[in-house]
Amino acid sequence: MAAGSITRVGFGVLPMLVLFVLLLVSLSLLSDATHNSERFGQMYSMLLLVNAAGLVFLGALVIANIIGLIRQQRMKAPGARMTSRLVVMFVILAVVPVSVVYYFSLQFLQRGIDSWFDVRIEQGLDDALDLSRAALDVRLRDVLNLTIRMAEDLSEASPATLSLTLYDHRVRSGAAELTLIGGDGRIVASSSSDLTSIIPDQPPGEIMLLMRNRRHYIGLDPVGDSGLFARALVPVLSSASDSEVYTLQAMYEVSERFSLLADGVQSAYTRYKELSYLRTPLKFSYTLTLSIVLVLSLLAAIWAAFHSARRLVAPVRDLAEATHAIAEGDYSKRLSVASDDELGFLVRSFNDMTRRLAGAREQTLRGQQQIEGQRAYLEAVLANLSSGVISMSADSVMRAINRTAGKSLGIDPRQYLGKELSLLASGHGYLKPLVDAVTRYRKQGDKSWEEEISLSGANGRQVLMCRGTVLGGKGKRAGGLVIVFDDVTTLIQAQRDAAWG
Question: Does residue 199 share a domain with residue 156?
Fold first, then answer.
């Protein structure tokens, strides 16, 4: 396992929260711009670019996290595989419900926009607009016919009685103002229901040009702050051939309620046509906004998955690194306890275990030092003994041979340490009686024995007084063996010489 750890890629929680809130505000403004057709063209492109930049930044951050995690897995960093599993699990838990909500929201959105443009609603608005226009046309036609009749009456009136005649016709017709205009545009006579009005309202110049051809005019015109008026202009033809041709202008006030209703129908129809024109762009805009919200949610969820997975895996990663350090012999590794939950308990238990292992290691080292000291002492003692000593394990492997034994047997102790006793007879045939005797007593299971063994080597006959003692084993299993022998050849020869002398 590699000693590296998982690196963090990205910012902290607070900067990411600020970025997420800013993107949500931008999305809210984008949705508002979609609803408002006047602000649609002004703000939509700018807000779309802002959200796109934010999504690109989040996407780059997520991709950097993924690349970093893949690199850590290849390096076999502690906690990388667990982080990957947690990230995948969190992403699945986030993607599935969000995708389901997105799918059904998109279906409702498409059907909802289509329901706005129902054929019956459009036909109803067209009929309402046609009805209002027809009613207005009827009203204007009545006004024009009434004005024509008044013009016919005025054509028979004398110039001296024109003002009185206008007054009578205004009162009977309900007109707001009647004005008789000369061929050169001068005011010949006028009668108005507004006593504060001194100068009558004059028609625009283009209408007067029309009247020179002795044609009729009827239309709706706003007059200052007084509201909407039906303006009718009719030529007044006199019976006298040389008389001047006048123009009668009649102003009829349109009721405020009628005006409001007509404006309402026209406004609703205009709004509907705007929406109908923006039907496809609206679908695209709402779908795009919803898709941006989806992508933002997914990217934020993936980043949160990486962040949460790292926080959850951090204690486990630290434990893995500490375990690796302990496996390499570093028992001084300690972990900081960051929480009081189960992971915190695990960290505290690990620290306790580490302290105990360190203590046990120190005790073991002290024990080994004591054993080494005792072994050195024993070797020093064996080296200075006048008797030969051979120590063997339970499987007849020679563990210790002192210098006296090597000198007495004519062997190099270092050559046979760690080898079986039978190899002595293979390398030195004259030692076979010694090997056979030891083997025989081990097979018999004697715990202690003593025997005089004669060897015939290159230096002649050699007599060894051998004593063997079996060391304690576990249970019925035999332990090691210690052989102590003395070379009594000189002693026996001296005894013989004394006996023969």
Answer: yes
Residue at token pair 């003395």: 486
Residue 79: domain span? 13-116+278-324
Confidence of residue 5 (pLDDT cuts 50, 70, 90): very low
The winner for highest mean pLDDT among 121-130, 196-205, 405-414 is: 405-414
Tokens read off for 453: 């063994």
pLDDT digits (tens, 9 = 90+) for 403-436: 888 888 888 888 888 898 888 888 788 888 888 8
Both 397 and 486 in one domain: the answer is yes
Please state the φ and ψ torsions of residue 110, each to the nearest 5 degrees: -65, -45
Q: Sheet of 228-236: strands edge to edge? A: 187-192, 177-181, 246-253, 228-236, 217-222
Alpha helix ranges (H) inside 117-161 = 119-156
- Rounded Cα distance between 71 and 80, Å, is 9
What is the CB neighbour count within 10 angstroms for residue 47? 23
223: domain CATH number is 3.30.450.20
The enclosing H or E element of 250 equals strand 246-253
As a whole number of angstroms, the distance between CA 488 and CA 408 comes to 11
What's the rounded mean pLDDT across residues 188-194? 83
8 A C-beta contact, residue 444 and residue 450: no
CA distance 453 to 405: 14
Kindly give the residue spans of alpha helices, DSSP state H, lying in 182-255: 205-211
Residue carrying structure tokens 């690990």: 350
Contacts of 441 (CB under 8 A, 6+ apart): 449, 451, 468
Across 89-93, 149-153, 269-273, 309-313, least confident range:
269-273
- Asked if pLDDT for residue 54 goes beyond 80, the answer is no
Res. 86: pLDDT tops 80: yes
In a domain, 268, yes or no: no
In sequence order, the β-bridge partners of residue 231 are 219, 251
What residue type is assigned to position 127 of the chain? D
Q: How does DSSP classify residue 332?
A: T
Q: Which residues pair with 449 in a beta bridge?
A: 468
Neighbours of 210 (CB within 10 A): 15
Cα atoms in the Cβ-side hemisphere of radius 13 Å centred on 321: 17
pTM assigned to the model:
0.45
3-state secondary structure of 216: coil
**Inter-residue contact 231 to 238 (CB < 8 Å):** no
Task: For residue 271, give every residue at least 6 positions away whose Cβ sits within 8 Å of its Cβ, in sequence order, or none.
Answer: none
Q: What is the pLDDT of residues 321-361, one digit of tens each?
A: 777 777 777 777 777 776 677 777 777 887 888 888 888 88
CA-based end-to-end distance of the chain:
84
